[in-house]
Amino acid sequence: MSALAAIERFFERLFERPSARLFRTRLQPVQLQRRIERAMEAERLSTADRTLVPNRYVIHLNPDDLAAFGDFSASLAAELADGALVFARAHRYTLVDRPRIDLLADPTIQRADIRVDARFADPIAGRSVGRELGPDADASSPSPREETRDPLGRDVSSSTMVFTIPRPPTPQARLRLIDPNGTERELVLDGQPLTIGRATDNGLVLGESRASRHHARIQLRRGTFVLTDLRSTNGSRVNGVGVDEVVLGIGDQIEIGETILVVEAVEDVGPA
Is 195 helix (H, G, I), strand (E, B) or coil? Predict the structure, then answer.
């Protein structure tokens, strides 16, 4: 779990659970949907031409919280799967198969808390191996409840399909840097760690008064680029949100002071 995700969970526990106890409110489906979307964003894998996201999600809930959904819990998983598909298409993410959501009663989870485990899984048995659902894929595919796996991801069918997620050996992306005075320059990320800051020993030196000497680092991790703030004085922001560490995707805007770094696809890079 990234530092940012850990901080988010801390504050959620700090505020949400006491409020739920005080006002005796139940978890709402929209809260589960938002957690799925966060898990999808956190586990996405960016390649040169697409962004792959997990297609299997197990939501761990306190047994009392799960029981509170009553008869609705039978259809809730399908509704959440539909919502995950809509979210993925809206962000032009690629899925290896239609999302599947499982709700699991977990006594280790406290009341009003939610834990989502996201993973990449094989396509549903009976469909062609390697079929991908891009943003324009047909929505008339069978229900995800047809898959022969239990909520813990264990195969219960007579055979197991194997799907390998395609991953380029050296993923690349481009950073378009927009200085405070409006001038622009470009830098290609080739998979090597890139430090950013005012000091001259950085890979990307900024003449930015609000940048720390060693402000942030972009490095390759699990096939995707990750931005880490190096405990800078003024912090780093991605798409307007302060971050400690976050997975980067095409189109993301990194803000360091008044300097903006836009992540772009490597295909757009012209000849040197």
Answer: strand
